[in-house]
């Protein structure tokens, strides 16, 4: 993978942002953002397109009927977002290129924010604030929006869209150093610039740049919070998932007030990691502690003892019942909590106990993840946030049917490059595990995937 210096062009191209970001298929209905397949192309062209670019899943789901509508917007939040766009554009002067972001959130908000229905009436206003913070943040947001269109639209513009998102990314990389050195920009504005560019790099599979920018952003986070300790409920713990993938220590120490399992506490699903990624906040904290324990300089006996304590915490934690408008979504979110529980148990066995894949507790958690995931419909929300759990279970899976099932769940959850990276890494893990008889380390250098 090339570094972010290699990915940028040597000269900043002269680009019309409106032209890059706002290309629309002639058959796209702007009022609901849904794309349909063109029917006037030749069958040969469509076949070639399908082979080269055809998405594994179509989003939004096509076809009339309540099933598709339930899958696209199970929380009935999109109408509120659409109304907020109308109000915002009627009462404020907004540059035309922002319409691309409006389309993006109308179509893909439930693929990028787990609990997307928390404050749908404020989503677009919040997004516009981020859009205006800096030029590099704006370009990063547009990169992601155009990439999603290229990944999911079934349109003859697909090739052009992929070219446009690369142009936008090149501009973002060239603008970022200028914004970082601008004394008039706040620390938060600079962090948002990093975050939006890293979002694109994650989905596009630009791993070298993604991890490099994450390390570069860490001092800004410390400057903002004033220490190396972060309250997980006030600042999302993205670096926890990076450490989960790389098996390296987190850049920060994560804390929360979620310390006693089984206690009835305040519901936190609207804060922190859980609101954005779906991983229960307490599980995120325990994952970070597991990684920290792995790198603590203590005896193996003491490490094992502490690992057992972590495993018991994970096993015994009583989650609050998640809130959702429809019963099917409540059931799915309970399933997500339990899937993450078993993924965390597997991570303790991977990082602390170094358990063999045949270990009975390990295989029990693998089977539970497979069984519980059967109640989560593939391809939509919340399934599109469960790839890390499917990957961890897949790394420990020994039966071919289990491996192929988990492999299929990853590929069936979206069309992003990062998902193919996960599957490629799993294939390599299985090959080495079958040859050596022991679990392969999934965190080899250079890093081949991200969560």
UniProtKB/TrEMBL annotation:
The keyword Nucleus applies. It comes from the Eukaryota. It holds the Pfam family Fungal_trans_2. GO terms for cellular component: nucleus. Transmembrane segments: none annotated. It is found in: Nucleus. Keywords: Nucleus. PANTHER family: TRANSCRIPTIONAL ACTIVATOR PROTEIN UGA3 (PTHR37534), ZN(II)2CYS6 TRANSCRIPTION FACTOR (EUROFUNG) (PTHR37534:SF46). This is Transcription factor. It comes from Rhizoctonia solani AG-3 Rhs1AP. The lineage of its organism: Eukaryota, Fungi, Dikarya, Basidiomycota, Agaricomycotina.
């Amino acid at each position: 993978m090339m570094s972010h210096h290699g990915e940028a062009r040597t000269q900043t191209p002269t680009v019309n942002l409106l032209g890059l970001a706002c290309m629309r298929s002639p058959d796209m209905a702007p009022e609901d953002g849904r794309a349909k397949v063109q029917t006037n192309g030749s069958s040969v062209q469509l076949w070639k397109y399908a082979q080269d670019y055809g998405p594994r899943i179509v989003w939004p789901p096509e076809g009339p009927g309540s099933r598709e509508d339930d899958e696209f917007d199970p929380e009935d939040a999109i109408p509120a977002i659409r109304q907020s766009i109308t109000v915002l554009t009627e009462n404020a002067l907004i540059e035309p290129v922002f319409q691309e972001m409006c389309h993006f959130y109308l179509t893909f908000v439930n693929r990028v924010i787990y609990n997307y229905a928390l404050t749908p009436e404020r989503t677009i206003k919040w997004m516009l604030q981020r859009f205006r913070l800096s030029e590099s943040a704006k370009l990063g947001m547009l990169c992601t929006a155009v990439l999603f269109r290229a990944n999911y639209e079934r349109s003859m513009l697909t090739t052009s869209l992929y070219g446009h998102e690369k142009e936008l990314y090149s501009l973002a990389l060239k603008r970022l150093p200028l914004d970082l050195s601008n004394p008039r920009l706040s620390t938060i504005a600079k962090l948002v610039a990093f975050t939006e560019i890293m979002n694109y790099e994650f989905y596009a599979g630009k791993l070298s740049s993604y991890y490099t920018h994450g390390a570069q952003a860490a001092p800004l986070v410390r400057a903002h919070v004033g220490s190396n300790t972060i309250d997980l409920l006030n600042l999302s713990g993205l670096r926890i998932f990076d450490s989960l993938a790389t098996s390296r220590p987190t850049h920060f120490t994560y804390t929360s007030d979620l310390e006693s399992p089984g206690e009835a506490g305040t519901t936190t699903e609207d804060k922190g990691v859980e609101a954005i990624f779906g991983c229960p906040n307490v599980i995120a904290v325990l994952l970070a502690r597991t990684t920290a324990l792995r790198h603590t300089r203590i005896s193996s006996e003491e490490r094992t003892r502490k690992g057992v304590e972590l495993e018991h915490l994970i096993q015994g934690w009583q989650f609050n019942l998640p809130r959702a408008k429809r019963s099917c979504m409540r059931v799915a979110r309970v399933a997500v909590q339990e899937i993450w529980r078993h993924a965390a148990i597997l991570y303790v066995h991977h990082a602390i106990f170094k358990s063999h894949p045949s270990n009975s507790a390990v295989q029990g958690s693998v089977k539970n993840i497979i069984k519980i995931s059967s109640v989560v419909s593939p391809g939509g929300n919340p399934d599109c946030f469960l790839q890390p759990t499917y990957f961890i279970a897949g790394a420990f899976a020994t039966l071919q049917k289990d491996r192929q099932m988990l492999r299929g769940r990853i590929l069936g959850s979206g069309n992003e490059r990062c998902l193919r990276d996960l599957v490629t890494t799993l294939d390599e893990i299985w090959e080495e595990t079958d040859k050596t008889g022991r679990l392969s380390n999934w965190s080899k250098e250079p890093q081949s995937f991200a969560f």
